[in-house]
């Protein structure tokens, strides 16, 4: 549940910041008449995410065990790739996120402003698709539905509240630190999803080594115990792990986390010297209190 809460919080906060910047910029330009276009794009993005979740959930019914395990394994790998891309994308573009979005708005202000629907749809839809895939992979890994969805829902609600407080100028948070720490944690979580995807493909017979266990600590960490469930729900830890799962986990975590930490440290040096601001500018409102990444 904790991992899914973090997914909902991070993805939701990214989406909330994007919407906040878009709306604040339109307010600054005195184009409040175009704000409904933003909300239309957001609504379509949410429907897309829900639709993908429904297809993933109900589309596998009636399939053979091998087909279900194959689809589950491949989608877990895709989810890992998307989350990894998202983590590095935010690390690279957070500093100029506001400028990038404002440039898109300027480009689509001509005419009826319907292009703003596309801007909001693409910006928020990306977060929604990533969330839907990652949550589905988490549900498959844990075998539970209520806890992952509850955790993600609580994270999204928290993100919406934070986004509103930031827009209203009542909250100041260090976004650079938040995205750095959450990114590092998500890389570890994504490694567990990737490892579980490999296990699914082993179950389907597409990868070898299903019975070649690197370790089996089921006696010390029973899967149905509270701490076994906690480790499964947060890190996708399996008490019985094959050598291939372990190898893939290490091969992903070590270089990915190492690169992320190195880029994060490189990014903080110029930020401390120049202190750029990416806070959304809201007309007729106090300045949004957001520390620049």
Automatic annotation (TrEMBL):
GO molecular function, one term: ferrous iron transmembrane transporter activity
Residues that span the membrane, as ranges: 6-26, 38-58, 70-88, 109-126, 146-166, 178-198, 240-261
Organism domain of life: Bacteria
Pfam family, one: FTR1
Localization: Membrane
Region (Disordered): 271-293
InterPro entries, sorted: FTR1/Fip1/EfeU
Membrane topology: Multi-pass membrane protein
GO cellular component terms listed in the entry, alphabetical order: high-affinity iron permease complex
Keywords in alphabetical order: Membrane, Transmembrane, Transmembrane helix
NCBIfam families linked: EfeU (NF041756)
Family as reported in the entry's similarity comment: Belongs to the oxidase-dependent Fe transporter (OFeT) (TC 9.A.10.1) family.
PANTHER family: IRON TRANSPORTER FTH1, PLASMA MEMBRANE IRON PERMEASE
Protein name: FTR1 family protein
